[in-house]
Design brief:
Layout (H helix, E strand, L loop, with lengths): L1 H24 L2 H16 L9 H22 L14 E3 L7 H8 L4 H7 L4 H13 L3 H8 L3 H15 L8 H16 L3 H7 E10 L4 E5 L1 H11 L4 E8 L2 E8 L2 E11 L2 E8 L2 H11 L7
Parallel strand pairs: 2-7
Antiparallel strand pairs: 1-4, 2-3, 4-5, 5-6, 6-7
Helix pairs in contact: 1-2, 1-3, 2-3, 3-6, 6-7, 6-8, 7-8, 9-10, 9-11, 10-11
């Protein structure tokens, strides 16, 4: 009976726990691993000794995620700045996907914010994510980091300065209008309209599997968009981390995914996912084939 009750309580917290882990790790697969680890620990624990299961699970997921972040460096993995965060995506016209998945996307963190979080130290990221995004008191975070409360506040403050201004508009229809205009101009080869949809200092980050290529400035990004426009590449409206984005197919197979940040009616950041392994993972999540297979 206790295991059944614990399983029910865990399921009540699963969405919240995934949100914590995903913001910490920027990877849906690693976030799911962290959440599963938390369940295994809970299932082996004495529930009578846990005052607040939700808070206990949050602490476990945070610690597991912190250890995973720290281990990336010790294992000599690809630097965080050389890869894009793993996105979550659903097609806007999807009718068969899990409603829980769409609900998760509705309050998902933007790709633009995840890119900045990836540039923080593991301790800064934990302090900011737990305190600023999930309202965990600094005293509790300090215990996880084995630091003083004042030191933990300073970590969050430094992270906050890096993150400031990275919150996009949350009006998806307004975002979609700008993104659609961008692709219509690209297909028509209309550089003036393309540049009009872009912020002058727009940044495009493209990952084709060998690191990130970055393009800066409206003229550069517009020229790149025209160069890659192709009649056989079809754009499908999608929600990428809850914001307007696109899935691009080539002869019916997933070719790439693009995430957009729109601020004051202008595109300020674009992330393009075209690395074969990333596209294969995203294609599987959408029930599609990958064009890179």
């Amino acid at each position: 009976m206790q295991q059944e009750w614990l399983a029910e309580r865990f399921e009540d917290e699963r969405r919240h726990l995934f949100g914590v882990a995903y913001r910490m790790l920027g990877s849906t697969s690693e976030a799911e691993d962290a959440v599963q680890d938390a369940w295994l620990r809970l299932s082996r624990s004495d529930a009578d000794e846990i005052d607040n299961i939700g808070a206990w699970l949050t602490t476990v997921v945070a610690r597991v995620s912190l250890n995973m972040l720290r281990s990336r460096k010790t294992r000599g993995e690809q630097p965080l700045e050389d890869r894009l965060p793993e996105p979550t995506i659903v097609l806007d016209d999807a009718t068969t996907q899990d409603p829980a998945e769409r609900a998760m996307l509705a309050d998902s963190v933007s790709i633009a914010l995840l890119v900045v979080l990836d540039q923080l130290s593991p301790d800064e990221r934990l302090a900011f994510v737990l305190h600023d995004l999930f309202a965990v008191p600094f005293d509790e975070i300090a215990t996880m980091l084995d630091r003083s409360s004042d030191s933990t506040r300073q970590l969050a403050s430094r992270a906050r300065r890096r993150v400031r201004g990275r919150t996009p508009e949350d009006n998806v229809p307004a975002q979609r209008e700008v993104v659609d205009a961008f692709f219509a101009a690209a297909q028509g080869g209309d550089l003036d309209r393309l540049i009009g949809a872009l912020h002058p200092d727009v940044v495009l980050r493209a990952d084709i599997g060998s690191g990130i290529t970055t393009y800066r400035g409206a003229a550069k990004v517009a020229g790149n968009a025209v160069m890659y426009a192709h009649a056989d590449r079809v754009t499908h409206a999608a929600l990428v981390n809850g914001s307007a984005g696109v899935a691009i197919t080539f002869h019916g197979k997933l070719y790439s995914v693009m995430a957009f940040t729109v601020v004051d009616g202008k595109i300020t950041e674009i992330e393009a996912y075209a690395a074969p392994d990333q596209v294969a993972t995203l294609a599987e999540s959408l029930g599609m084939e990958s064009a890179h297979a």
